[in-house]
Amino acid sequence: MESALVAIVPGHRPVESGFPDGLRTPVAVVGAALALLIAWCMIELPAAGARGGAQVVAQSQELLVNDLARATADSISDVAGDLSTAGALYTVHPDKTPAATLTAFTRACPQARGLALVRRSTGTLLAGTGEPVPMESLPNKDVDRITVNLVQDQSGATVVLTAAPLAGTDWLVLVTTGLKIAAATLSGEPAEALLLTTNDGQVVKSRGDFDPSYQQLVNTASANATAVGSVTGEAGKGPVVNGVRTTPIAVYAPILTGDPARPLGLNLVLVGSAPGQGAPQTPVETAWATVALAAAAATTLLLLVFGLVRPLRRLRAAALGGHHKRRHRLREARIVAGALVGDAVVDKRGRISARTLVFAAVAPLLACSVAVGVVAWETVPTVPELVVQGERGLADVTAGALRDQLSASLTDLRSFATHATGDVGSLKPALGNLIAQNSRYRSVYVTDANGAVEVTAGRTPLRTVERPPAGSGLHQQNTAGRIPVLYASTPLPDHSHVLIGELDVTKLSSILRRSAGNGKLVDAGLRTLASADGYRAFDPLTDQSLRQSVTDALGGVGRPGTDEIDGQWYVIAATTVHGGQSVDPLRWTVVLQQPLTTLPLPDNVVRRHVLAAALAAGTAALLLLGWYHLCFVRPLRRLATAADRLARGDLKTVIYPERLNEIGTITQCLDATRRQRADTTAPVPLLV
């Protein structure tokens, strides 16, 4: 290429568009975005790694407190269900006198502290039993549905007042019951306390030692308890543990009853203390991703600038000016430069193509983002012991909720049976009411002594016809099949019929779904009866860590821990469903497995931030690749093909610019060269 480049017409400069067509635009735009990303990583990753302590512990308890609040609400709502069932039975065999009526309802509500029968129209007391019922706390007694309210009895204690109108009469049944906090394993040092509070922070029920100095924190939590949440007190103002001051915490959740759920004006608050600061991560643990992404981004941008942008801009300047001579390393640039001076490039080897250079330039950033993402994805977070123990508490609450459902089903049937006199066929409306008021059943029916169904309500019974077990109890009929057959049974007063209520496995699974992760209910043979996730009935537990956890729980030595299952780490906790003569023989166990990556831990926050940064960097790399390849590399390759034809003598094919950018300018210069050569080589017409 010794001859001078042929320039475009002097004084004429091709028009080039601005954004986004310039060669430097992708580098500038994506480079600025990457700079912001790196700056965000430098600021946010260390800050996220330094978070923790009290806030982490508080957030880890939110699911437990919410589950406890639901269990407390269930215990309150059970009274309404008992009253509804008793009312339906009353319509079958009505008692004429108020005293006899109240006696029937007393048998239906064994947890009642006091009962009263009043006239709705006048509020006159007709009969009463147990503790005095604060009737004056229900100013409007003309109600047409079951209502639940918080009131104070004569001693000033807060109780639940449930009112149920009696169909076909002017009577209203009032029942007071005490407040109960669901059982749960309380951890922490010092031990935590569970409180039932009103919205103004008044403590009406407590379990555990409550430090009065936490009252202001309790007031704040109670006022904010429109949904589950947590608050932390002033750092270092908690009790001294192991020579270190702790930070007070309060976790809260509202008590919601009814359908649809409505606030009762009662909240469950867990108070305790936690370390004021978490163990901060070292700069190496939080900065490695920033350094790696910054180095990869700089490499990519420099390769693009010095390997593609500057060479093509020099070629453009040469095409416009016609006086630069330079050896080009890009294959396409060398071909175009040769065509501008009339040289055909024969040997095209030993030069890198623009497409290869763009792919090679983007590769470091893309590979680094993938590597950083994989490392972050596979990183196992560090789990504080308090968080692990919180999973045990969650398992206890779930097992307690299941136990309450099982026990309540047997209580329902026993209460129903005390009123089931006379012809069993007349019980069908009351059975239908029992199904409607209690979602725990899939079907309720009466069988004869041999197990044949005589009257039923709900879905078709699954239980195989066989002689029912003697007495009252809870039973598991099968250990194989499509659906587990779990039922409660109790004999009717005539001793020739048995009342059976089949439990809805879907309802049991919904209780398991309250917990995070995957919860399972398994029998003594480690077969799955219900699960929070999709499952096949009676699938055995296959993972050894889950089997060992259940075995330990059945042996009374269960303890939570972390273990790897199918390549992912979980917190595992198991608790037996126990607490009564009817429940204990089942030997059922709740086992929970929650992925460590879903826990509210600083490590997980850093992990999510690093994954987001890796994804953003990978997206930037792909954006650079697509932008340069579509807007510059492909037009440049087509220009090189046209330049090669021109250098080999094709002066007829017009070379059109595809885009008004640097490549378009070079294209116009090349076409100007073609026109000049076509003019000089045209034959001179002969004069005749």
Automatic annotation (TrEMBL):
The keyword Secreted does not apply. Keywords: ATP-binding, Kinase, Membrane, Nucleotide-binding, Phosphoprotein, Transferase, Transmembrane, Transmembrane helix, Two-component regulatory system. The lineage of its organism: Bacteria, Bacillati, Actinomycetota, Actinomycetes, Pseudonocardiales. Its EC number is 2.7.13.3. It comes from the Bacteria. It catalyses: ATP + protein L-histidine = ADP + protein N-phospho-L-histidine. One of its GO terms (cellular component) is membrane. PROSITE patterns: HAMP. It comes from Kutzneria buriramensis. It is an enzyme of class 2 (transferase). GO terms for biological process: phosphorelay signal transduction system. Residues 633-682 form the HAMP domain. This is histidine kinase. PANTHER family: SENSOR PROTEIN CREC. GO terms for molecular function: ATP binding; protein histidine kinase activity. The chain crosses the membrane at residues 287-309, 357-377, 610-630.
